[in-house]
Amino acid sequence: MSSKRLIEQARKACETRGARFTLVREQVFSFLANSNSAIGAYELLTQLQQLDAKAKPPTIYRALDFLIEQGFVHKVESQNAYVLCSHFAEQHKAQLLICDNCGDVQEIQCPEINTELEKAADQYGFKVQQPTIEAHGLCKACSEA
C-alpha cells in the first residue's frame, strides 16, 4: 500500500478517535511508511531535521509515543527501533519476525500464539501487559543466499 494511502488511513483513524495527527506526527509516520525495516529514533530525528532543523530528540519521542498509542507503530525492543504496523486499523497484539542478517521486520498475526502465551502466564499468576513477541532468525531471502 502506498504511503499516501497509509497516511490518509491514519488521518481518518485520528479524526474518528478525536486525536490530533499533527504535521510532525505525519512526517514521522511517513518516514516509517517508506522504510523497509525498523528505524531508530535518532535516524528518524535526522530525517526530520532535514525538514525542520530545530527538531530535537523530545520531538521524535513524543511523536513516536503518540503513534504507538494510536496503534500505528510497534517498538522493536531488541533493536531499540520502530516499525510501522501492517494493519493498524484494528487494535491487536503483535508478533514480529526479525531477520538478523538484513534487518527486515515482518509483522504476523497469529491469535493462537497470544492465547497460548496468556494460558502459560496464567499458570504462574502472571499478567502480560506488553504482549509483543519478537522472533529472530533469517528471512527467506537471507536463508536462501
UniProtKB/TrEMBL annotation:
Required co-factors: Zn(2+)
Entry superkingdom: Bacteria
UniProt protein name: Ferric uptake regulation protein
Gene Ontology MF annotations: DNA-binding transcription factor activity; transcription cis-regulatory region binding; zinc ion binding
Record-linked InterPro entries: FUR (IPR002481), Fur_C (IPR043135), WH-like_DNA-bd_sf (IPR036388), WH_DNA-bd_sf (IPR036390)
Coiled coil: none
Example GO biological process: regulation of secondary metabolite biosynthetic process
Cofactor: binding details: Binds 1 zinc ion per subunit.
Organism, scientific name: Catenovulum maritimum
Location relative to the cell: Cytoplasm
Stated family: Belongs to the Fur family.
Pfam assignment, any one: FUR
Gene Ontology, cellular component aspect: cytosol
Keywords from the named record: Cytoplasm, DNA-binding, Iron, Metal-binding, Repressor, Transcription, Transcription regulation, Zinc
Binding residues for Zn(2+): C99, C102, C139, C142
Subunit structure of this chain's protein: Homodimer.
